[in-house]
Amino acid sequence: MKTEKTSATLETVLSQYRVFRMSVWAVLALLIAALVCLFINRYAAFALLGLAMVFHIFYVRRQQKAYTELVNRSNIELTVMKKIGAEDVSGKSTGGLNASTIKRAGMMPCDGSPSFFWGMEGDMGPFHLQISDVSIPQQFELKKGGKNRMHFDVGVWTHVVLPADSGYRYCIIDETAVPTPIRMAYFDRDPVMFHAELGEPSLKGKAVLYRPMNEEDQRPSPAVMKSLMDLIAYTPGYTALSLHGNEMDLFIRGRFLAMPVTVSKKPTAASLEFDPFPELDYIKKIASACSSTRRLRSAEEAAAVQEN
């Protein structure tokens, strides 16, 4: 059922769609006129072809870009933004995310300046979220000592601030979320994080755990594993999760907030209200599981909790 906001948004999108479609028809009319003129006056035909090309490059393509951006923004406003109560979004916004966020998560390299698109921030319950499409530059060598090459890991990055310090630090990474050679080289450079057994048979050969060395209890609780596995089973993308203190980061490679926009079909209320990132509901459950278990940092703290 269409809401008042959806109806108003749809009218705006339809208006831009009509402008774009009219520009396309104008180009087709110029091309047909040029074809007819080939049998009458070749110079006029070439002039019309040139006019059609200039009109397409400097007007039609701009109208298509404006329409695509409007559809994406309208779709995100009616879905993801609504869920987290975000106030603004645009194709160039970062949602407050930056290279420091990625590096602090400690689950993949960020060799240069990442690009963020359609970023936003808001709240879901007790959690503050920053979400954005992202392209992360990562250097790698095809062979040891060889020339550095650049790989771009692209997907959706969600940064969650938990209500309190969990006491945990670990990463669970799908082996496709970060290409294996890049992941292994990255953690080989990290003297803190250690590759450990995840302990989940269904994820053997699919995902890996990294935790601080000599801290066996730094691993996901059963509640976190269940919530994460529900997401893995649902999403067509590839996940990487980092929990560090009161911050949780989750990257899904191959998923995007901005969906492909077809220009051959008229937009509808249903298409504008289609949720591009339903994984967000699963991410909230993972954050809740991360918040429900707190790691005790010392024997004294454990004894105090036991006494109470």
Describe this structure in words.
- The chain is elongated and about 85 Å long.
- It has helices at 4-37, 42-78, 80-84, 99-105, 180-188, 222-234, 269-272, 279-292, 299-307, and strands at 115-124, 127-141, 148-161, 169-174, 193-196, 207-212, 238-244, 247-253.
- Residues 298-308 have low confidence and may be disordered.
- By secondary structure, the protein is an alpha+beta fold.
- A hairpin with a 6-residue loop joins strand 2 (127-141) and strand 3.
- The termini are far apart.
- Helix 1 packs antiparallel against helix 2 (42-78) and helix 6 runs antiparallel to helix 8 (279-292).
- It has nine helices and eight strands.
- It is 43% helix and 22% strand.
CA-based gyration radius: 25 Å
Strand order in space, largest sheet:
1-2-3-8-7-4-6-5
Poorly predicted parts: 298-308
Sketch the topology as an H/E string, one letter per element: HHHHEEEEHEEHEEHHH
What is the end-to-end distance? Answer: 52 Å
- By DSSP, the count of extended strands is 8
Taking all residues together, what is the mean pLDDT?
A: 91
Counting H and I runs of at least 4 residues, what is the number of helices? 9
Our estimate of the beta-strand percent is 15-25%
Class based on secondary structure composition and strand pairing: alpha+beta
Shape: elongated
Describe the sheet with the most strands.
Answer: 8 strands, antiparallel
Measured as a percent range, the helix fraction is: 40-55%
